[in-house]
């Protein structure tokens, strides 16, 4: 990843500020000691079995595609009222619908008949 995009610099020359949302400050993370990690870890972490991560499989999130989408104003307002990342929540609702639809056997009726509304 291009370092220019992962660290924002403050007005004081050369001093790194907080990274932009969704981007890790890798230099800062590289300096974190094991002791600091243990101190900030959840209480239940030491109780995990030693083989806890042995069968873990990394899941790479799917890329997002910017689109223009027209939605009812009240729907957009409702999602925005729920706070930041409303577009991610809208995506989660669409994903949930898609997954529910994909799980249905072929020939089953739609979730909502087309003659309502």
Number of strands: 0
Order of helices and strands: HHHHH
Task: Give the count of structural domains.
Answer: 2
- The percent of residues in helical segments reads 25-40%
Shape: extended
Give the low-confidence spans: 1-12
In terms of structural class, how would the helical and strand content be classed? Answer: mainly alpha
Q: Quick one: biggest sheet?
A: none
Count every helix, treating DSSP H or I runs of 4 or more residues as helices: 5
Q: What does this molecule look like?
A:
This protein is mainly α and 117 residues long. It folds into two domains: 47 residues, no CATH class; 42 residues. The longest helix has 18 residues. The protein is extended, with a radius of gyration of 22 Å. The N and C termini lie far apart (48 Å). The N terminus is likely disordered.
Produce a short descriptive summary.
The chain is mostly helical. Helix content is 37%, strand content 0%.
Secondary-structure blueprint of this entry?
Layout: H1 3-6, H2 26-30, H3 34-40, H4 73-81, H5 86-103
Could you list some keywords that capture this structure?
about 120 residues, mainly alpha, 5 helices, extended
